[in-house]
């Protein structure tokens, strides 16, 4: 595929469109033809197997009914007595009555005859019997005599008799014996072509060919009367060559064996779709494919042009952006995906330009804030040393309040002048503890301070001195005039956002002040420089999606800070 990757974009789009359009079409044409022919062959095979099962079932039922008829004659003993007694009118009438009762179920599919022990015909249901005598020392009667008493034996009438003729195709016979075991005669069943035709009528298509073979694979019945010994022999030879794979496309036959007597049933089916029809389908498919190729060439060319031109313009515009020209603008009148892509590119360059300008302004504002911070920290070590001197002087003169004030103020000052811009929430709470101890000297017993911070959140990094202005606002403004105030700092985490809230139960913040805090861009407000600085610090460090929100009621005020939940070592 290296050669493909080396092609120009326009050529790749054109070639891809052509391949995507043509390859599936050609594959579908071939696959659909194959599926169509395979489906027809499968349906034909299923239909053939169903027909063969019905044929086998009807033939098996005929054999069972024939055996029942012969058993009925041999077991009642009347036939044996009639064969050795003198023939009278009453005897004939009773014998024929018994004979017709025995062959009720096979009457339309076979003719039943009784022969005496010498092979002479005595009684028959055939209106025109062909032979009055049958040899007893060879052929059918010899096989019947050798078989167990009452057992029906089947025999092809004559190996040289054309099974396409209308004569008797198969005979069945059983020996009739007296109670003492003496052979009295024989019961013979004749099966003609018309009998088999009636039995199997409607069970298979007239275009198909049915062969019934005996246990020696010799033909007994062929559904096509015009077939002679040569044609039938060719069918049998073809079946034997493909006996293990009878359902193949080239063989086109199915077979089944009757287990009791060993008869074989071979059904030769016509192909579900002829070779000329397949060739015609292929020709039509090829013609449609050529027409589709021409159509694909035209459409692919137009589509390639409509895609490559705007992509080329975007490529040139991106090259200008790489050089630093953010004022580039790509004109487009399209309203499709490429048009929206072009508009998105134009919007991206505008946003990038605005972002860079905003970034420069934020850097400028941050530098100014840092400069002011440095100006407020002039000679901080001098102030720290002075506070330390005050603390020791208060201890010497036994003034503990001043010592506590100096000690905690020194802690706050040391944290504020630290060179680290970010500290853990735990360290920030330690600073708040120092501030609370200072305020409790001023407001002795007038408020209770608590924290509800989960242990896993104490390692989160926040800007230093972030909470002190909020606590100061709660004490100075929120608890003004209260004798039993309550201040609580609590925090929680939702996904990657850390929320820190400072709440009090004071008189509640004025709604004007709440609107000022919750406004998108609050301006500096006299008397609330600390809150304003916290808002600006959050926006400078974390952007507009984080910040400070206030909620106030008659029961108190809650100020909540939202910022990313990050720990030491992560990008804060």
Give a description of the structure.
- Residues 305-357 form the HAMP domain.
- GO terms for molecular function: phosphorelay sensor kinase activity.
- This protein is an alpha+beta fold and 572 residues long.
- Among the domains are: 25-268, 2-Layer Sandwich (Beta-Lactamase), CATH 3.30.450.20; 443-564, Heat Shock Protein 90, CATH 3.30.565.10.
- Helix content is 51%, strand content 17%.
- It has helices at 2-5, 9-76, 78-84, 89-102, 140-146, 193-200, 229-241, 275-322, 337-376, 380-396, 400-416, 425-442, 468-478, 511-518, 529-542; strands at 111-116, 121-124, 153-156, 168-177, 183-192, 209-213, 219-222, 253-257, 264-268, 422-424, 447-452, 461-463, 485-494, 497-504, 547-553, 556-564.
- Strands 2-1-5-4-3 form a 5-stranded antiparallel β-sheet, sandwiched between helices. It has a 5-stranded mixed β-sheet with strand order 11-13-14-16-15.
- Strand 15 and strand 16 form a beta hairpin.
- It is elongated and about 160 Å long.
- The two termini are 46 Å apart.
CA gyration radius, whole angstroms = 55 Å
Strand fraction band? Answer: 15-25%
The number of helical runs is: 15
- The order of strands across the largest sheet is 2-1-5-4-3
Could you report the average pLDDT, rounded to the nearest whole number?
80
Oligomer: single chain
Helix content: 40-55%
Spans with pLDDT under 50 lasting ≥5 residues? Answer: 377-382
């Amino acid at each position: 595929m290296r050669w493909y990757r080396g092609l120009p974009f326009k050529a790749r789009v054109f070639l891809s469109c052509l391949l995507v359009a043509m390859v599936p079409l050609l594959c579908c044409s071939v696959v659909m033809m194959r599926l169509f022919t395979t489906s027809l062959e499968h349906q034909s095979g299923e239909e053939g197997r169903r027909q063969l099962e019905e044929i086998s079932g009807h033939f098996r039922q005929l054999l069972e009914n024939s055996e029942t008829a012969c058993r009925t004659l041999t077991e009642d003993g009347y036939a044996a007595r009639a064969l050795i007694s003198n023939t009278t009118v009453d005897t004939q009438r009773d014998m024929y009555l018994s004979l017709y009762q025995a062959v009720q179920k096979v009457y339309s599919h076979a003719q039943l005859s009784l022969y005496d022990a010498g092979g002479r015909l005595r009684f028959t249901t055939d209106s025109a019997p062909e032979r009055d005598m049958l040899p007893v020392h060879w052929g059918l009667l010899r096989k019947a005599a050798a078989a167990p008493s009452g057992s029906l034996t089947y025999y092809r009438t004559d190996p040289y008799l054309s099974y396409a003729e209308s004569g008797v195709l198969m005979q069945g016979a059983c020996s009739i014996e007296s109670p003492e075991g003496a052979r009295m005669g024989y019961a013979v069943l004749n099966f003609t072509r018309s009998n088999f035709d009636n039995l199997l009528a409607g069970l298979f298509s007239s275009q198909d060919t049915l062969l019934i073979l005996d246990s020696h694979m010799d033909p007994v019945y062929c559904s096509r009367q015009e077939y002679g010994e040569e044609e039938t022999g060719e069918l049998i030879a073809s079946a034997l060559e493909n006996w293990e794979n009878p359902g193949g496309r080239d063989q086109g036959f199915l077979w089944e064996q009757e287990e009791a007597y060993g008869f074989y049933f071979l059904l030769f089916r016509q192909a579900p779709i002829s070779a000329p029809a397949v060739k015609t389908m292929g020709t039509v498919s090829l013609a449609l494919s050529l027409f589709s190729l021409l159509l694909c060439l035209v459409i692919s060319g137009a589509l390639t042009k409509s895609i490559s031109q705007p992509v080329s313009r975007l490529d040139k515009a991106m090259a200008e952006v790489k050089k630093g020209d953010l004022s580039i603008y790509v004109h487009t009148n399209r309203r499709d995906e490429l048009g929206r892509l072009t508009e998105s590119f134009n919007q991206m360059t505008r946003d990038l330009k605005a972002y860079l300008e905003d970034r420069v302004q934020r850097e400028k504002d941050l530098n100014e804030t840092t400069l002011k911070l440095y100006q407020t920290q002039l000679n901080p070590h001098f102030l720290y040393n002075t506070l330390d001197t005050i603390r020791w002087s208060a201890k010497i003169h036994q003034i503990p309040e001043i010592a506590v004030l100096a000690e905690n103020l020194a802690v706050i000052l040391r944290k504020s002048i630290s060179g680290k811009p970010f500290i853990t929430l735990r360290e920030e709470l330690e600073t708040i503890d120092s501030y609370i101890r200072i305020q409790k000297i001023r407001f002795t017993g007038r408020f209770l301070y608590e924290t509800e911070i989960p242990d896993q959140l104490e390692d989160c990094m926040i800007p230093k001195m972030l909470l002190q202005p909020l606590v100061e606002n709660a004490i100075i403004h929120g608890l003004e005039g209260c004798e039993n105030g309550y201040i609580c700092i609590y925090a929680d985490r939702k996904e990657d956002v850390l929320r820190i809230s400072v709440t009090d139960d004071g008189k509640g913040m004025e709604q004007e002040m709440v609107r000022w805090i919750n406004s998108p861009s609050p301006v500096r407000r006299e008397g609330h420089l600390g809150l304003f600085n916290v808002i600006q610090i959050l926006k400078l460090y974390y952007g507009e999606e984080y910040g400070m929100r206030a909620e106030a009621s008659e029961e108190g005020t809650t100020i909540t800070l939202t910022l990313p939940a990050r720990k030491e070592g992560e990008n804060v």
